[in-house]
Design a protein that fits this description.
- By secondary structure, this protein is α/β, with parallel strands linked by helices.
- It has helices spanning 2-6, 38-57, 69-82, 99-117, 126-143, 165-174, 202-244, 285-291; strands spanning 11-14, 26-30, 33-36, 62-65, 85-87, 155-159, 178-182, 193-196.
- The chain is built from eight helices and eight strands, in the order H-E-E-E-H-E-H-E-H-H-E-H-E-E-H-H.
- Helix 6 (165-174) links the parallel strand 6 (155-159) and strand 7 (178-182).
């Protein structure tokens, strides 16, 4: 609550700019500005946090979306910190619904980066190099945050649903859950996990983004702990196999005292007469058999 108050999360927009569907999240009005109910904000943060954590624990990815100037830096920093994808420059139409086409642009970006490294540019003219560099810069700006994305994300985190209306519409069409910060001028309907709060203050945006990034980190840590636990279990099983393996009969120790009162029967050795060729027989055959 203290962090939310210090970050100015409770400040909404002017009363005249409000969306009536946000009424249930508004606490009061002060000097022509709506004040958001932080009790409901805290509850919404918990729900969004759990949703993101479960999604990541299930092996899916998170996409951070925030293209307004106040959000760009925080979105990129926190998404990179937790190793997830982000869009902080411009939402290209079809980034989710037409992902197969977006993939071609991603491949083009990777190809240009490879050309720059492997020395292909050395064989080109200055004009061609400048053209390719310009194309690469444009692709990097728009798609740099999703360069390694191979499939659509499992959940979206959005700052300001009014500005990112296309992203919201695409996610809804694709059936992808949305965690979004909604201000008093936004429509919370259709958002799976709306978080009422100020979506214009840099400190507020940074706080929300950090919380969601922490959910991703926590889920990754849980997965890491599970892997370590399973490794430990496998080591214990191996040790058990080694220690409890059946010992061969000749390696077992025999308790002589246990057999003291018992009569030990030793089986007589069976002698098998070897076949001897007639030519190899010595002169006195009878003595040979007696000896055997």
């Amino acid at each position: 609550m203290k962090s939310l108050l210090e970050s100015g999360v409770h400040f909404g927009h002017q009363v005249k700019r409000w969306d009536p569907r946000m009424k249930k999240y508004i606490f009061a009005e002060r000097n022509g500005i709506h004040i958001i109910d932080l009790q409901k904000t805290i509850q919404a943060i918990k729900e969004g946090y759990d949703a993101v954590r479960k999604t990541v624990a299930g092996g899916k990815t998170v996409m951070f979306v925030g293209t307004k100037k106040q959000a760009q830096q925080a979105i990129q920093k926190e998404a990179e910190r937790c190793g997830m994808f982000y869009v902080n420059s411009r939402w290209l139409g079809g980034m989710l619904t037409n992902f197969s086409t977006i993939k071609k642009s991603l491949l083009r970006l990777k190809k240009l980066e490879k050309m720059e490294v492997d020395g292909t540019f050395e064989n080109l003219t200055k004009k061609e190099i400048a053209s390719l560099a310009k194309e690469r810069a444009k692709l990097q700006k728009n798609l740099g945050g999703i360069k390694e994305m191979k499939d659509p994300p499992g959940i979206l985190f959005i700052i300001d649903t009014r500005k990112e209306a296309i992203a919201v519409a695409e996610a809804q069409r694709m059936g992808i859950p949305i965690v979004a910060v909604v201000d008093t001028n936004c429509n919370p309907e259709g958002i799976d996990f709306p978080i009422p709060g100020n979506d214009d203050a840099i400190r507020a945006i940074t706080l929300f983004t950090q919380i969601i990034a922490n959910a991703v980190v926590e889920a990754d840590n849980e997965a890491g702990l599970k892997i370590i636990e399973t490794l430990n279990d496998e080591e214990e099983i191996v040790e058990e196999v080694v220690t409890d393996a059946s010992i061969r009969e000749e390696d077992r120790e025999v308790d002589i005292e246990a057999y003291a009162g018992e009569a030990v029967v030793v089986p007589a050795p069976v002698v098998v007469a070897e076949e001897v060729e007639e030519d190899a027989l010595p002169v006195d055959v009878d003595k040979v058999y007696e000896a055997k």
